[in-house]
TrEMBL record:
Organism: Mycena sanguinolenta
Protein name per its UniProtKB record: Serine/threonine protein phosphatase 2C
Gene3D superfamilies, A to Z: PPM-type phosphatase domain
Domain PPM-type phosphatase: 34-387
InterPro entries the record matches: PP2C, PPM-type-like_dom_sf, PPM-type_phosphatase-like_dom
A Pfam family of this chain: PP2C
Record SUPFAM superfamilies: PP2C-like
Record-level Gene Ontology MF annotations: protein serine/threonine phosphatase activity
Taxonomic superkingdom: Eukaryota
Length: 388
């Protein structure tokens, strides 16, 4: 049955079991080891496909199993997030091998360095294309260097895009969570006093007072370094891999990025903030780390939820959350996942609950007919991991 939503867009109202089948088709639920996963973007337009990525891997290193679970939320394009997914796990794995072989292991420092090094390597690869700098080069010479449809193009494009990073590294009784950007990680633990919720990620966003204050402190005399809750008035996240428009001098944007092909989706917006780029970098690639020693929880059950920020958006609408804070939404996620009647893939169950159990409401999210072919909901990825 065809209906119209509140915005006047047409959608198809589905009944069960067709609705659950369509949700599963779009979300592609998987169970990988101890993890349940989903990742959804219903818009079928190729250019609007999901920029979320996730990875679940188990590594046997020095007779110990290390569980590497990660969620990446790309933005402005796919090149950066695809590069990070390909590069970061190997960097972390190799650092673990080397660290365990050489002595006491500092996992927080290992994760901080791995993420920062992937970002720094991207930036250095770009700058190495111009060993003498940009001065003295014509725009034609720069364009010929960067638009080779090969390695040079790839190096430039991944620097023009960006990605958040959320990693949970678990071995034995210990869990470390590294967060860069605004994806969320929530720990649910069942203790003698009931289920407890702990947020293990940071909210690196311009709306966060501490992050805004940090950037203002790093750029004194630049009141517009945070404008309209965005860095330079342009980007919501305050920490990310890539996004070198906010990390390199403005000349790299005007002479390199704006001459790249393919370029930005909306290059006219670049000029709006370029004049504010006075003392880069404005975005950081330094992640925050939290550690949990599982026995200290004294919990009979425990699990982690890693999610891209699309889950916050869905939760806010469905649960009627006035403040879309990770602590508020996370408490609801733990409540949902701890239900005694929960069945099947845990990530899919949480996604369905966040979308709503009303068939028509979920149908309106899955089957909208968009004349412009643009997405109508944020990419949403969930990785659920049982710890205890």
């Amino acid at each position: 049955m065809k209906r119209q939503n509140v915005y006047g867009a047409t959608y198809t109202s589905l009944a069960e079991p067709q609705l659950s089948a369509e949700l599963a088709r779009c979300a592609r639920p998987q169970s990988i080891g101890r993890a349940d996963t989903v990742s959804i973007q219903p818009c079928a337009t190729p250019s609007e496909r999901s920029q979320d990525r996730f990875l679940v891997a188990d590594w046997l290193i020095s007779d110990h199993i290390w569980h590497f679970h990660a969620v990446f939320d790309g933005h402005a394009g796919h090149e950066c997030v695809d590069h990070v997914v390909a590069a970061l796990p190997a960097v972390v794995h190799d650092a673990l091998v080397a660290g365990l072989a050489s002595g006491p292991l500092d996992v927080p420092e290992l994760l901080r360095k791995a993420i920062a090094d992937v970002d720094a390597r991207m930036g250095q690869d770009l700058q190495d294309l111009f060993p003498g700098g940009l001065d003295g080069l014509s725009d034609d010479e720069i364009a010929a260097t960067i638009n080779d449809n090969g390695l040079n193009s790839a190096k430039v494009l991944r620097c023009m895009r960006g990605s958040t990073v959320l990693v949970a590294l678990h071995s034995g009784d210990d869990v470390w969570v590294a967060s860069l950007g605004d994806c969320q990680c929530v720990l649910g633990a069942k203790t003698t006093s009931g289920w407890q919720t702990t947020v293990l990620s940071s909210n690196h966003n311009g709306t966060d007072a501490d992050e805004a204050a940090r950037i203002h402190q790093e750029h004194p005399g630049e009141p517009e370094c945070i404008l309209r809750d965005r860095v330079l008035g342009a980007i919501a996240v305050t920490r990310a891999v890539g996004d070198f428009l906010f990390k390199l001098p403005a000349s790299y944007t005007t002479r390199v990025f704006l001459n790249a092909r393919p370029g930005f989706q909306i290059s006219s917006k670049i000029a709006d903030f370029l004049g504010r780029n006075l003392t880069p970098p404005y975005l950081s690639a330094q992640c925050d780390i939290q550690h949990v020693h599982l026995p200290s929880l004294d919990a009979s059950e425990a699990f982690l939820v890693l999610a891209s920020d699309g889950l916050i958006d869905l939760s806010g609408d469905t649960y009627g959350l006035e403040h879309r804070e990770p602590a508020v939404a996370g408490k609801k996620w733990v409540e949902v996942l701890s239900r005694e009647d929960r069945t099947g893939n845990a990530a899919l169950y949480l996604l369905r609950d966040a979308m709503g159990w009303d068939a028509d409401a979920v149908s309106s999210l899955l089957t909208v007919e968009s004349e412009q072919g643009t997405r109508w909901m944020d990419d949403t990825t969930i990785v659920f991991t049982k710890l205890v």
